[in-house]
Amino acid sequence: MERLLVLVRHGQSEWNLKNLFTGWKDPDLTEQGVAEAKRAGQELRDLKFAFDIAFTSDLSRAQRTLGLILEELDQTGLETIQNQALNERDYGDLTGMNKDEARDKFGEEQVHIWRRSFDVPPPGGESLKMTAERVLPYFKKEILPLVLSGKKTIVAAHGNSLRALIMELEGLTPDEILKRELGTGAPVIYRLDEDGKIVSVQDLAA
């Protein structure tokens, strides 16, 4: 029995393009983001993938990315579960701020700490550790059991919510996961054994 889990970060959003901290705000995809999502669907179609269930966040950029992927797979009626547990990290007071402007206001070192430390949150927001504490219980309760039962599963979410999942799946340290970059609209394909351990990983961004 194949146990298949595909993770995909949403395509480029309007705020990605503007270099803004996005968090739980809800900008749409850019034209490039739409193209990235369609290409992800085409790549999965070329691999002859068909899914049994899909999960996504409460944010439209992830939902639209998933929808575009499923269109390419002719699976627009697929059962899809949306939950804010899969939302992007909340950037708190930085939300909506240009990243260069934030460096000018708070200093480059402080902004780097907020963005790239594991357990230091920005003011009013979440650290990656806090994001993982939100994402992982949901993953372990709602998603992983379905994957282990043989349901081919796709999760369309966000850079940091997916980092939390990857950290768990791959057994990475905080330092290792902070260095992990996820391309927009680039699926990562996991095949797992009966215990949820990785048999193989294929990153279509590579």
Automatic annotation (TrEMBL):
Reaction catalysis annotation = (2R)-2-phosphoglycerate = (2R)-3-phosphoglycerate
Q: What is its EC number?
A: 5.4.2.11
Write out the catalytic residues in the record.
H10, E88
Q: Which InterPro entries match?
A: His_Pase_superF_clade-1, His_PPase_superfam, PG/BPGM_mutase_AS, Phosphogly_mut1
User: Keywords assigned by UniProt?
Assistant: Gluconeogenesis, Glycolysis, Isomerase
Signal peptide range equals none
Q: Which GO MF terms are attached to this record?
A: phosphoglycerate mutase activity
Q: Does the keyword Isomerase apply?
A: yes
Q: Name one GO biological process term.
A: glycolytic process
Residues annotated as binding substrate are: 9-16, 22-23, 61, 88-91, 99, 115-116, 159-160
- Pathway the protein contributes to: Carbohydrate degradation; glycolysis; pyruvate from D-glyceraldehyde 3-phosphate: step 3/5
Annotated site residue numbers, Transition state stabilizer? H158
Q: Does the keyword Isomerase apply?
A: yes
* Protein family (similarity comment): Belongs to the phosphoglycerate mutase family. BPG-dependent PGAM subfamily.
Task: Please explain the role this protein plays, according to its UniProt record.
Answer: Catalyzes the interconversion of 2-phosphoglycerate and 3-phosphoglycerate.
- NCBIfam families per the record? pgm_1, PRK01295.1
Query: What interactions and quaternary structure are annotated?
Result: Homodimer.
Protein name, per record: 2,3-bisphosphoglycerate-dependent phosphoglycerate mutase
- Species: Roseibium hamelinense
Q: What is the lineage of its organism?
A: Bacteria, Pseudomonadati, Pseudomonadota, Alphaproteobacteria, Hyphomicrobiales
Gene name as annotated = gpmA
